[in-house]
């Protein structure tokens, strides 16, 4: 069976129960679609990678040495573009044992990681609404190492490896997430 957004969402809800993680995956999907649009790439394919990149997070208990590698097993009943599986495996360089090297790999790593910084920035705003967040605030928070300390800034900066400067990347990510803000609790 060909993997599509409908069955990808079904799988996400089957394997991921944490609502914040589901929101993160929805945000990642939105950002990856935005990046694909900007770069003239396949929005469906990139969106599916964003949506499913953490499909195995609860199965693996987020164990860094294996997270990202089990998703392929969870998708065994579906026909999945090999580039999607590769990008998902490579979003966690640690478990893959290799360094990212393709545009798609960089895009997924940067795109899914910036969502964490955007969520954290949104939560410190008085109204806690994504619509209030300015790109310059996200970029400013990038420099504050103690703010959202678990967010890997070096992953976000991989946006520059695909030709998108950080200021522009923050704006693109916020704009991409805005239409789905309510579904993400933002």
If you had to describe this structure to a student in words, what would you say it looks like?
The protein is mainly α. It has one domain: Hypothetical protein af1432, CATH 1.10.3210. The chain has helices at 5-15, 19-39, 43-52, 71-74, 82-90, 93-96, 103-124, 135-142, 153-156, 166-177. Helix 3 (43-52) crosses helix 5 (82-90) and helix 5 (82-90) crosses helix 7.
Main β sheet profile: none
Number of β-strand runs: 0
Indicate the mean pLDDT.
96
Instruction: Indicate the radius of gyration in whole angstroms.
Output: 15 Å
Helices and strands, in N-to-C order? HHHHHHHHHH
Label this structure with key terms.
single chain; 186 residues; mainly alpha; Hypothetical protein af1432; 10 helices
Topology:
Blueprint lengths: L4 H11 L3 H21 L3 H10 L18 H4 L7 H9 L2 H4 L6 H22 L10 H8 L10 H4 L9 H12 L9
Helix pairs in contact: 1-3, 2-3, 2-7, 2-10, 3-5, 5-7, 8-10
Short description:
With 186 residues, the chain is mostly helical.
């Amino acid at each position: 069976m060909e993997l599509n957004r409908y069955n990808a969402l079904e799988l996400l809800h089957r394997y991921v129960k944490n609502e914040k993680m589901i929101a993160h995956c929805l945000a990642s999907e939105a950002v990856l679609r935005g990046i694909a649009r900007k770069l003239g790439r396949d929005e469906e394919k990139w969106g599916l990678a964003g949506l499913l990149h953490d499909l195995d997070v609860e199965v693996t208990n987020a164990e860094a040495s294996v997270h990202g590698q089990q998703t392929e097993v969870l998708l065994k009943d579906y026909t999945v573009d090999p580039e999607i599986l590769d990008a998902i495996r490579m979003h966690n360089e640690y478990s893959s044992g290799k360094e990212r090297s393709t545009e798609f790999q960089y895009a997924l790593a940067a795109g899914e990681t910036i969502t964490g910084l955007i969520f954290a920035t949104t939560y410190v705003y008085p109204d806690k609404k994504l619509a209030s967040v300015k790109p310059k605030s996200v970029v400013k928070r990038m420099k504050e190492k103690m703010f959202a300390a678990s967010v890997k800034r070096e992953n976000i900066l991989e946006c520059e490896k695909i030709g998108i400067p950080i200021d522009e990347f923050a704006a693109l990510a916020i704009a991409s997430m805005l239409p789905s803000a309510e579904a993400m609790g933002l």
